[in-house]
Design goal:
Blueprint: E1 16-17, H1 28-33, E2 36-45, E3 48-54, E4 58-65, E5 69-77, E6 82-90, E7 94-101, E8 104-111, E9 119-128, E10 141-145, E11 154-160, E12 167-175, E13 179-185, H2 191-197, E14 205-208, E15 211-214, E16 229-239, H3 246-261, H4 274-287, E17 292-295, E18 298-301, H5 314-331, H6 336-343, E19 349-350, E20 355-356, E21 378-380, H7 381-396, H8 400-419, E22 427-429, E23 435-437, H9 450-465, H10 468-478, H11 492-509, H12 512-526, E24 529-530, E25 547-548, E26 557-558, H13 559-576, H14 582-598, E27 631-632, H15 650-659, E28 660-661, E29 668-672, E30 676-685, E31 688-695, E32 702-709, E33 717-721, E34 734-735, E35 739-745, E36 749-754
Antiparallel strand pairs: 1-11, 2-3, 3-4, 4-5, 5-10, 6-7, 7-8, 8-9, 9-16, 10-15, 11-12, 12-13, 13-16, 14-15, 17-18, 19-20, 21-22, 22-23, 24-25, 26-27, 28-29, 29-32, 30-31, 31-36, 32-35, 33-36, 34-35
Helix pairs in contact: 3-12, 3-14, 4-15, 5-6, 5-7, 5-15, 7-8, 7-9, 9-10, 9-11, 11-12, 11-13, 13-14, 13-15
Length: 760
């Protein structure tokens, strides 16, 4: 493990210094030296007191840290002139100002939440005096020395907003003082601004040293006179510590994110019947001619609805088959489609190249213009390993054909891993291993997290054979993930699966490095969440809160990848148990909750017609077909621009398998929108017994639990807090003939008792 200090030449994170600055930096030091209306807030940061001051066009908060630097926070900006500042309210932890300017009246609320000296929260709203369009507004944070000079500062930028992800920026300052800043802009509060101006907050939070934070998106649509609108709702977490390693940076990131998430507004959730949705989707996958095709008397599912211009793909077959096998086990009875898809697996093996292929061998591309991956001799690094991973999952369940295909293909992928030294390119030639596309973008490297997916496959092979060769491969590849910091993530589901594997390697080997790398991977994933509700434009009829995009720079959420992330999160909680960091346990549980709520909006029938793209890039869109759309974007874009994703059909039955707990001969299904990562049961009589479940999450958050009858009516049931012996039964918040619904705390053990002698 690297433990060099940040000024070591081998430190993992490059330095950032002032180079090309915007017009907002020039002359800033003189403005501060001539500032007026100086005052001190009644509360302070850990780093010191907070001063309020006024320059010609802005009201500022300034705090010192490290004895050699300052942080300046611009709370409002009027390009012409600020005419008057008035403090209208002040308490021990909160201050409110009214600012009169040429644009109108600003209202600024500044608070220290819960007396926590690490956090500052400020909200700025404006009531315009007359209509105007927003053009080129400045950012809100500036890094300064003690003489207010921003040009002498330097430090490191770890991660910033990418596209529509959360409005965050995380960095450290190393000169002239030391400390770290985590900035978060609550985009949910900007709904009215975005609706009025027809803008969105994608790529609005960044770092252009020494400027940090949010800049209002410009628009030709004016703000309305006399209508108050929020312009900023920001949180700042300050720490005097500069991380010495990428793992310390990940832990500090998780600490800051967890504190801020607790303070954010969150949308209400509503129950959706995922078992019923699973039945409809599986029927469509099995029977609809739009979802699949027969080739040489074998049934292959399409990637997208009616997309038959390309040969079938192996990943698509396995993406449907593997979770369907798990659902079949959950259901307790066979599903015909499982057997159909199993029979076609051998068709994707190419004995000439001795590996599993992406495209069905012998298939024909019918399109005149092909995309870059439409070449049977071109391998996308993640793609082959993902298919082998799913073959491994089938092998773990006793499927001998899948095990045979995995081990007939594994030597090829080991040869490729050695050839690339576990640093995987984007595309390479299956015949020669020649690199056809080295980097995702210039200077960004290849598919960085694929080294973790390779380790995942090797751990599977090790667990199937106990051959130490595979464990050695897993270890060698895992160590290639070191030094990637917050650039590790290429594909979100791959990164989180890598984190799960790294946790397993930690347990197998006892080497703490792998658990450190595991947490780093999780921080990469959580940094790409959409922790805001898009309530403008088309977003008014759908939810994206707590979504996560499939790729680092993807501008949309994707059904299949979200489902796979959902399942992997639960598996991670089960694998790591009490060693899961609290923020991870909370954020995983909240992701679980909100995908169960908003996953319905992937079905086109759940959206108004005008919100659906009528000419998708792949195949066509059939609104009443219960197959999810691949993509949901922000409020001004229609859903389904990529297509209606047949392999996204795994979404409903993955959510069913992982969120609904049922046991043979027990007449009740337990649904929880927080993960159930442990469950046990006992029969205490012929028609009675109990089930004890352990919920994830944290005790300061609540989740929804439903007790659902397997038959038409619910038997006599009671729900108890297992950790409070002798306490009365919990009371349902909703009671129907077929279910009882409860609100309970996270991180709790619950005991469900059923039987004819129990009274609800």
């Amino acid at each position: 493990m690297r433990t060099e200090t940040y000024n070591s030449p081998t430190y993992w994170q490059p330095f950032t210094r002032t180079q090309n600055t915007s017009q907002w930096v020039t002359g800033l030091d003189e403005q501060f030296k001539n500032a007026t209306h100086r005052d001190t807030l009644p509360f302070a940061f850990k780093t010191g007191s907070v001063e309020v001051c006024l320059t010609t066009n802005s009201l500022w908060l300034i705090t010192e840290w490290g004895g050699a630097g300052k942080l300046a926070i611009r709370t409002c900006f009027d390009p012409q002139l600020i005419q008057k500042v008035e403090q209208i309210r002040a308490t021990r932890n909160r201050v409110e100002y009214r600012v009169e300017g040429a644009l109108g009246t600003f209202r600024i609320k500044i608070e220290r939440p819960h007396s926590d000296q690490s956090l500052l929260h400020y909200t700025t709203s404006l009531k315009p005096a007359q209509p105007f369009t927003v053009q080129s507004f400045p950012r809100d944070l500036y890094l300064l020395d003690t003489d207010y000079n921003p040009l002498t500062t330097e430090g490191m930028v770890y991660v910033t907003q990418s596209g529509p992800t959360s409005g965050l920026a995380y960095l450290s300052v190393t000169q002239p003082s030391e400390g770290s800043v985590f900035y978060f802009q609550n985009f949910t509060a900007l709904t009215d601004y975005c609706q009025t101006t027809q803008t969105e907050p994608s790529d609005t939070v960044t770092v252009q040293w020494p400027e940090v934070g949010f800049a209002l998106p410009s628009s030709d649509q004016p703000l309305e006179a006399g209508k108050e609108v929020v312009l900023s709702d920001a949180f700042i977490y300050l720490s005097p510590m500069v991380p010495k390693t990428e793992f310390q940076a990940a832990d500090q990131f998780l600490e800051a994110l967890g504190q801020i998430y607790r303070l954010l507004p969150k949308p209400e959730t509503a129950y959706y019947d995922w078992p019923k949705a699973s039945e409809r989707t599986i029927q469509a996958l099995t029977d609809s001619p739009h979802c699949g095709r027969q080739i040489e008397k074998r049934y292959h599912v399409n990637a997208y609805v009616d997309a038959t211009q390309k040969p079938p793909e192996s990943m698509v077959q396995l993406a449907i088959l593997v979770p369907l096998w798990e659902y079949q086990e959950w259901l307790g009875k066979p599903i015909a489609l499982v057997d159909q898809l199993q029979r076609n697996l051998t068709a994707y093996y190419d004995s000439k190249h001795e590996t599993f292929m992406r495209w069905l061998p012998g298939g024909v591309f019918k399109e005149e213009e092909r995309s870059e991956e439409q070449d049977p001799n071109k391998i996308d690094s993640w793609y082959l390993l993902h298919t082998l991973m799913n073959l491994g999952r089938l092998a773990e369940k006793g499927n001998t054909d899948a095990k045979d295909l995995l081990f007939r293909s594994i030597e090829f992928v080991i040869k490729a891993g050695h050839h690339f030294n576990y640093n995987w390119p984007v595309f390479y030639d299956i015949r020669t291993l020649e690199v056809l596309k080295a980097e995702t973008a210039e200077g960004k490297g290849g598919e960085l997290d694929v080294a973790g997916l390779y380790s995942h496959v090797m751990v599977q092979a090790y667990e199937l054979t106990h051959d130490p060769r595979y464990l050695n491969e897993a270890v060698a590849s895992a160590e290639r993930l070191c030094g990637k910091g917050f650039e590790l993530l290429y594909q979100t589901n791959i990164t989180i699966m890598s984190s799960l594997t790294l946790a397993k390697l930690w347990k197998i080997t006892g080497n703490r490095l792998y658990f450190d790398l595991s947490r780093l991977g999780l921080a990469n994933v959580l940094a790409r969440l959409w922790i805001w509700e898009c309530n403008f434009g088309f977003g008014q009829a759908r939810s994206t809160f707590m979504g996560v995009a499939p790729l680092k720079d993807a501008p949309y959420l994707a059904a299949y990848e979200e489902a796979e992330i959902f399942a992997t999160m639960l598996n991670y909680l089960k694998e790591v148990g009490q060693d899961v960091p609290e923020t991870v346990r909370l954020m995983f549980s909240e992701y679980f909750k909100y995908l169960l709520h908003r996953g319905r909006f992937y079905f086109p029938s759940e959206l108004p017609v005008e919100m659906l793209c009528q000419q998708p890039r792949e195949g066509r869109l059939i609104r009443e077909l219960p197959i999810p759309l691949e993509d949901i974007s922000t409020g001004w874009k229609q859903a389904g621009e990529v297509g209606q994703e047949v392999y996204g059909g795994a979404l409903p039955y993955i959510l069913t398998t992982y969120a609904y707990k049922q046991f043979d001969k027990i007449p009740v299904i337990i649904f929880s929108d927080y993960p159930i990562y442990h469950a046990e049961y006992e029969f205490t009589g012929r028609n009675e017994g109990y089930v004890v479940v352990r919920l994830a999450g944290t005790s300061d958050f609540q989740c929804q639990v439903r007790l659902i009858a397997k038959s038409r009516t619910l038997p006599t049931v009671q729900l108890f807090d297992e950790d409070a012996p002798g306490s009365p039964a919990l009371q349902p918040v909703e009671k129907e003939e077929r279910y009882y619904e409860y609100r309970v705390k996270g991180n709790q053990r619950l005991r469900m008792e059923w039987g004819p002698n129990k009274k609800a």
